[in-house]
Amino acid sequence: MKHNIVVFIFLSIATAHLLVAQTPLPDNIVHDITMLNFKTSVDSLKQIIDDMQQVKELDNPHLAYWKSYAQYLLYFQVNADEHVAVQTIDMGLSILEDCKKKNSEHYALQALLKGLDISYSRGMTIPFKAAANEKYARKAVELNPNNPRGYYALAVKDYYTPSAYGGGKIVEENLLKAISLPDRADPGPYAPTWGKGDAYWYLVMYYDKRKNPDLAKKYLEEGLLVSPDNYGLNRMKKKLEQ
Questions:
Q1: Taking the CB of residue 71, how many other CB atoms lie within 10 A of it?
Q2: What are the Cα distances from residue 169, in Å, to 24, 128, 140, 231?
Q3: 236 φ, ψ to 5°?
Q4: Is the dihedral of CA 193, 198, 202, 208 positive or negative?
Q5: Contact status, residue 175 vs residue 152, Cβ threshold 8 Å
Q6: Against a cut of 0.90, is the pTM above it?
Q7: 126 with 98: CB under 8 angstroms?
Q8: Residue 37 CB: number of other CB atoms within 10 A?
Q9: 100 DSSP 8-state letter
Q10: Residue 82 has what pLDDT?
């Protein structure tokens, strides 16, 4: 009898977890998710963020991811104002830190946000934040070795780490891995697919910095086929044509 009660409790907890993980998002939020990209205007991003704040659902991991991603995108629109930029990063990180059911995608995004956070940090906090950045990126890859955004996060972290501190050693291998994987790492309906164009962009910058024009051109051309509107790739195209 005691054994049956234990089994029942275990199954109840497991079922509750599954129901939370699979809880459908409202139609307007699903629409908002499809509108999220690096070209989304500040006003639209703020409206999407407000829409998502209206969903009173406890610890929905899908919603948490996209709320944080909206803050990530907003950062690139408002980073001319350091105070607003820091607030935006903090909000994105806070959402993920409060999410109790994180998967590989959450950790990849958390790593990227933590990397942005480092750029506004000073003194002794930097090594600790850098360690957290790498920990999140490696956790993303560990949880799902087929997630391109995990490898992208690892590469970005290493790209910005000074060579004096061991940076630059795993940029290339992780970016090549990221572009080799399918955009979607999870069959779920709310799984992200972004990032492939940015991985190509960093790969082109990496080869350009290392005076390897042939590989820079090769991956620029490939990247533009995958993501013709990518801002970074088009900026590198102009630079390499000079």
A1: 23
A2: 42, 20, 19, 26
A3: -70, -30
A4: positive
A5: yes
A6: no
A7: no
A8: 9
A9: S
A10: 96
227: left (phi over 0), alpha (psi -120 to 50) or beta: beta
Provide block-wise average pLDDT over 10 residues at a time, the chain (242 residues). Answer: 40 37 82 95 97 82 96 97 97 96 97 96 90 97 98 98 92 98 94 97 98 97 97 97 89
Its sign, for the CA torsion 71, 72, 77, 80, is positive
Neighbours of 57 (CB within 10 A): 13
User: Would you say 160 and 129 are in contact if contact means Cβ atoms under 8 Å apart?
Assistant: no
Instruction: Count how many residues are written for the chain.
Output: 242
* Token digits of residue 208: 């350009």
Enter the DSSP assignment of 81.
S
Neighbours of 21 (CB within 10 A): 13
Task: For residue 109, give the amino acid letter.
Answer: L
Token pair, residue 219, equals 């991956």
